[in-house]
């Protein structure tokens, strides 16, 4: 899965000289939390809702409420935006975009096609993908277990489920330690007790099993 397949497009953008108050109104109207800042078709920054909410002129200690409101009304996006923008291309694997967001601690990445912004990929998009990967809206038996990290173990597990007439509807591998991997999967076509009996000879340890 590539970023271009799951990005939000067309992307909502703001201009550098948009006032903070106007940008906030746009964010609330469109229900977004961040937007690329575009100046003459060129990406010059990115602004998040928190940047707008925490924006304030400095110093403010000696200002009257009228002076403060006046200065706030003149404050523009280019004064509060992030200038160094981390971007990705449309053909970036979705997991690479997720890694960048986690490593850089950012909530969204503008998606580029050459020098043009063609979309944005955000935490919300990744959460939706996680829901799909884990088949959250499908009924089944969900298992979290430890599986030996040796060649053929996944094949043994899938063969056991197949022979019991079960069907994997989601599967994920997570942390690896002490020669084993933490796995989470969901199976349909079998009862809770049938799943327990089917996987017992294969997995090293079951941490959680439930019908969902």
TrEMBL record:
Pfam families: CBS, TTHA0829-like_ACT
Residue ranges of the TM segments: none
Domain CBS span(s) in chain numbering: 7-62, 81-136
Keyword Repeat part of the UniProt annotation: yes
SMART domains according to UniProt: CBS
Keywords, alphabetical: CBS domain, Repeat
Domain of life per record: Bacteria
Entries under CDD domains matching the protein: CBS_pair_AcuB_like (cd04584)
All residue ranges annotated as the ACT domain in the record: 142-212
Protein name: Putative signal transduction protein with CBS domains
Top-level taxonomy: Bacteria, Bacillati, Chloroflexota, Chloroflexia, Chloroflexales
């Amino acid at each position: 899965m590539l970023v271009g397949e799951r990005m939000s497009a067309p992307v909502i953008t703001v201009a550098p000289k948009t006032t903070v108050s106007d940008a906030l109104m746009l964010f609330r109207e469109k229900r977004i939390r961040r937007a690329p800042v575009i100046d003459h078709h060129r990406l010059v920054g990115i602004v998040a809702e928190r940047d707008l909410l925490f924006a304030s002129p400095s110093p403010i200690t000696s200002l009257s409420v009228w002076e403060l409101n006046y200065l706030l009304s003149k404050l523009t996006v280019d004064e509060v935006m992030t200038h160094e923008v981390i971007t990705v291309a449309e053909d970036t694997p979705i997991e690479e975009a997720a890694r960048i967001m986690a490593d850089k601690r950012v909530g969204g990445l503008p998606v580029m096609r050459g020098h043009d912004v063609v979309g944005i990929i955000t935490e919300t998009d990744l959460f939706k993908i996680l829901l799909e990967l884990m088949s959250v809206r499908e009924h089944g038996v969900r298992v979290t277990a430890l599986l030996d990290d040796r060649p053929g173990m996944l094949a043994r597990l899938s063969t056991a489920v197949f022979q019991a007439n079960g069907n994997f509807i989601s599967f994920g591998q997570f942390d690896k330690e002490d020669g084993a991997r933490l796995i989470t999967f969901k199976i349909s076509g079998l009862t809770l007790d049938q799943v327990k009996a089917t996987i017992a000879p294969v997995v090293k340890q079951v941490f959680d099993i439930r019908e969902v």
